[in-house]
Amino acid sequence: MWRPLDPAPADAHTCHLSASTVERWLDQAGQTATAGVAEQLVGVTSSGQLATDGLWARLRGGTKRVVLALVDNVTGVIWPPVVVAGEGTAAAWETLFRRAEQAGLILTELRGIASDGATGLESYRRQALPWVSHQRCVFHLWRGLSGALTAAVTTAVAATELTGAAARRVARQTRRTLIDLIRDVYDAGTDAEAQAALARLAAHALGQALADLVAVHLEAAHYYRCGYNQGLGRASPEWLWRDFRLRSSHGRNHGAEPRLERAAVLWAIYHNFEPAQDRSERRRTYRHPGQAPLARAGLPPGDISYLDALAV
């Protein structure tokens, strides 16, 4: 598999590796990675604009844990992840930020963070990082409107007393109209435009309930436009977990919490060293093709791989 153009060797010279052997090697590298978390990324420049997200995993015995990751939204550098019981408490997020600080992140230089709106993160931010702007993920905000949007469409169809294809046309038209009004609010370029778009949504016969929901997080949906938060994204970094699942463990196949955490820390180091591919995919493009996150942070790894850094 590694040298496909060579003649096939005799059975006496072949080496067969089982999946468990590779997993054991990776876990040993993970132990080295976890032991070196302290000052692991000292000297790596941070933009101050971060994003965070969690991945739930099921361990042996049905136990559920969540991997929390913190990524620089400008450079793509991932700070060492942690595994916690849940993301609903401030203590869980304090664990993540304390580990990042241990690795070299200067918390006083943070300015913004984007997330899906976990209550535990917001609680921790208010207590420990009150100067940091909390950008709410726009995709999760849209998801939170699905119930009210469905109710508005149902009301519109019921008012016409139509059935069949005619009712479906009314439903499509109503949904399209309301979605366009909501999009004008979230995609507004200035606060004045956002307020005007919100007023138009509220003025719609079926838009008041939606306008009330949008208004709750309107300011948090636009922090990314502020000069103070230049570089901050408007979405949580769920794309991280796509790469995590491509690991040989699929990002979830770990029987115990310590082993899951070792795999996550090892994956973060791999991600920081690995250059993004040069070409785009059908549904994915790369902002910095051919560059590793460490290179974008001002510390190009050169010919050193993540295994070299771990002395493996």
State the gist of this model.
The protein has 312 residues and is of the alpha/beta class.
Give structural notes.
The chain has helices at 19-35, 90-103, 119-128, 138-144, 146-160, 164-186, 191-203, 208-216, 239-245, 257-273, 293-296, 306-309, and strands at 49-58, 64-72, 78-84, 112-115, 133-136. It is an alpha/beta fold and 312 residues long. The protein folds into two domains: 35-137 and 235-309, 2-Layer Sandwich (Nucleotidyltransferase, domain 5); 142-220, no CATH class. A five-stranded mixed sheet has the order 3-2-1-4-5, sandwiched between helices. Helix 1 packs across helix 10 and helix 6 (164-186) runs antiparallel to helix 7.
Summary tags:
single chain, 312 residues, alpha/beta, Nucleotidyltransferase, domain 5, five-stranded mixed β-sheet, globular
| Sheet with the most strands: spatial strand order | 3-2-1-4-5
The CATH C-level name of the largest domain is Alpha Beta
The helix fraction, in percent, is 40-55%
Poorly predicted regions: none
Structural class: alpha/beta
CATH level 3 topology of the largest domain:
Nucleotidyltransferase, domain 5
Q: State the distance separating the first and last CA atoms.
A: 22 Å
Number of domains: 2
Total of helices: 12
Please trace the helix and strand order, writing H or E for each element.
HEEEHEHEHHHHHHHHH
Strand content: 5-15%
Largest pleated sheet: 5 strands, mixed
Give the CA-based shape. globular
Q: Please tell me how large the radius of gyration is.
A: 24 Å
Average pLDDT figure: 91
Tell how many strands the DSSP assignment holds. Answer: 5
